[in-house]
Amino acid sequence: RNYYGGNWASFSFSGLLSWIKENQQKTDTSDDCEDWRKLILENEEVISLSKKDKTIQHVEDFCFGDQDSAEDVEEAGALPKLPIFGASGAEGVAQESEKECPPMESALPEAESQEPEKATGTKPASAMEGNDTEITSKNESCHSTALGESALELGKTEAAPSEISAQEPKKVTYSQIVREGRRFNIDLVSKLLYSRGLLIDLLIKSNVSRYAEFKNATRILAFREGKVEQVPCSRADVFNSRQLAMVEKRMLMKFLTFCLDYEQHPDEYQDYENSTFAQFLRTRKLTPSLQHFILHSIAMVSETDCSTLEGLQATKKFLQCLGRYGNTPFLFPLYGQGEIPQCFCRMCAVFGGIYCLRHSVQCLVVDKESGRCKAIVDHFGQRISANYFIVEDSYLSESICTNVCYRQISRAVLITDQSVLNTDSEQQVSILTVPPVDLGKAAVCVIELCSSTMTCMKDTYLVHLTCPSTKTAREDLEPVVQKLFNLNTEKETENEELEKPRVLWAVYFNMRDSSGVDKNLYDGLPSNVYVCSGPDSALGNDCAVKQAETIFQEMFPTEEFCPPPPNPEDIIYDEDEIAPEESGFSNSPETKPEPSTEESSSGGSTAVKKEDNEE
């Protein structure tokens, strides 16, 4: 691929249109080198890899505006694609302004004592390959780029009331979306980070957090009796809520307090261990609205398939994550979920790792005697030897996956003109669970992102819908889209439709969910070849983190997984490496990075700059 992250990537609007076209056509990749088989020795055999990505299916996109008017429109500020671009906010070349900002490595751990709006900083330009970049530490200013706007200070944005929320939404045309396409960062997979989840802990521990920024999810919503309403989840929210009676507030607080230490009171739930969580809630003297809030918006579990214990565990996890960085348990990475894999790539690159784009692999080379994989052959016809090989599931051919049964994820991405629930502030990051109409079907998770997340242009919202597939993505998700949004492009619409946000553009697609597949189900894979899955359908990222750590520990059982990187001033070099270091460079693969003359070492801070003319 020509972009980072595979199915975890995020795209500008034009990048997504290219991705859609590519997946609708599904053309075969031809071999660049026909004689690569000459590299295979007599005592070796090959495992051919798939030339076609079959993880994305049923891609359908719809424009609800005048598409003809955008035929000759180009993205503003479009530049020739650089190898590292093609996915994510790294595409934008923007104005810069200096702002005081806390570094993420300190902002994440210290944020528990901060107000929600102070839990995030400004976008470090290190995430913007191709521009001047600077990674800063305490009391230093950081250069920030915001896709053509001055640097965004999140604290101010969240606190500031909307200037136009009371007015009618501005009319946004398709040609405007195309022109402002670089302001969009559209994720293929929609997730949030639990504030006490495994990924946040890993980002802090490994110091990868220095390359990313996050915005709080500002509200939890529920869809009940045809209306969207806000769910009170913290103590302050519960007692400030106008939609709950005083008796309901006491009921809710009593139940949530019980969930926080339910293990200490087994007598209260033991009789219901074989029941569903929904059945257990009915025994707790909770009103129907409270049961709905807890089941769908706090525990966020299935009404029919979730046991009492699983529901209590999910509720406890939600409650434990409250208050660490804000009033909800969730964080969202600025510029999209696709920033996260790029952040790990940046840290890897600092210590000598190489990430090759547009570099396909023909086959794995296996030694017949030992049964171990020795090398790969790439599309240039060169052999690359290694001791361990990690392969994403989508690269494996059908002959290897004959025993594997995959699940599917239904996805939809919408660009809309207003929020599903308008309030005084238009800069909201919302999560909404829409319960299934028919029992046995999965609920639909809706995540709505505002422009201050740097994922969409001003006066629009980016809406992600996700659920486990039963049919095609459009068949699964369009009924929910019709409930929440106005799809009518004609001027004459009913009053009820006028109140709903208008969909400007939409895409539906199904994505393979290969998580949870046992390695033993893959036929004929050598023991030193490890398979990792694509994204799963869960809201959080725990599955990916556990999988990465498991594979790492199998390869290197005595090593620490993602250890904290050393400070440059703490790195000790051998004497024979001093000479190349004096020039600021070292070709030795053993050498750790040392601050160059442009790097500041005072107070333990480092500032790494790129040259203006460097790609």
From TrEMBL:
InterPro entries: FAD/NAD-bd_sf, GDP_dissociation_inhibitor, Rab_escort, RAE1_2_domI_C. Residues 409-537 form the RAE1/2 domain. It holds the Pfam family RAE1_2_domI_C. Residues 571-580 have a biased composition (Acidic residues). GO terms for biological process: intracellular protein transport; small GTPase-mediated signal transduction; vesicle-mediated transport. Its main location: cytoplasm. Keywords: Cytoplasm, GTPase activation. Residues 90-141, 560-615 are annotated as: Disordered. It is found in: Cytoplasm, Cytosol. GO terms for molecular function: GDP-dissociation inhibitor activity; GTPase activator activity. The keyword Nucleotide-binding does not apply. One of its GO terms (cellular component) is nucleus. Belongs to the Rab GDI family. This is Rab proteins geranylgeranyltransferase component A 2. It comes from Eudyptes filholi (Southern rockhopper penguin).
